[in-house]
Amino acid sequence: MTKFRPCIDLHSGQVKQIVGGTLNDESARLRTNHVSAFPGSHFVSLYREHGLSGAHVIMLGPGNEVAAREALSAWPGALQIGGGITEANAKMWIDRGAEKVIVTSFLFPEARFSMSRLKGILEAVGGDKTRLVIDLSCRKSGHKWVVAMNKWQTLTDTEVNKETIGMLEAYCSEFLVHAADHEGLQKGIDEDLVRRLGEWCNLPVTYAGGGKHIEDLNLVKDISEGTVDLTIGSALDIFGGDGVKFSDCVVWNQENM
Predict the structure, then answer these.
(1) What burial class does residue 163 get, using C-beta atoms within 10 Å of its C-beta: 0-12 exposed, 13-18 middle, 19+ buried?
(2) How far apart are CA 256 and CA 150, in angstroms?
(3) How are strands ordered across the β-sheet holding 154-159?
(4) Exposure string for 57-85, b = 16+ CB within 10 A, e = fewer
(5) Contact 7, 40 (CB under 8 A)
(6) β-pair partners for 43
(7) 243: exposed, middle or buried (Cβ count in 10 Å: 0-12, 13-18, 19+)
(8) Nearest by Cα to 177 from 157, 199, 205, 210
(9) For residue range 184-198, what is the model confidence (pLDDT) as tens digits?
(10) pTM of the model
């Protein structure tokens, strides 16, 4: 059943909410909705208090490892970690307390999907697919969605569709999908993408991007027939937003579980 899934985005060691399409190596172009005065561990403690496990902690670029470790230590075995995850460091993050690792760019050398890399990172976590989340964050290209890597700036050769998801389901336990063109804008979710994810995915899947009020949880529940979870970021009051109260999300989960 659809539920609210919390997040923590780390950028330069701080908890931030960023407009996804502006995230690149040029700091002058970066548009930030909110920079928190609190560390990631503060939000983890809040999620733990309300039983909101499965939150994704995303390291957006360098300078975030210390903050990420502190966040994981606040609730060992309950969080997912992503951003720069590779075959070489996946087990390290599991050992540091992550429940699961989230992988994207590593799977797409030169923007081309690599099955050998996917098998390699699965082997790195002991062949245990329950430890692996595949991030299929994407951008719209014509009438289709294409996986985007490198802070969502580079389109890959892989379309997000039924065939791709069916092929990948054998190697992971769930999917995370940011609609990068909607991320941080608070202008509404990509309803077509949510509907298709509900049709295509047999594993748990979390959608993020554009959520702006509590009714979006009901919308995602309805159009995905309860199969897609929703992350709300910039609109959330704990991240400086004025569209959604965190307490309302907690209550929504309790009433819909």
Answers:
(1) exposed
(2) 36
(3) 138-141, 144-149, 154-159
(4) bbbbeeebbebbbebbebbeebbbbbbbb
(5) no
(6) none
(7) middle
(8) 205
(9) 556 799 999 999 999
(10) 0.94
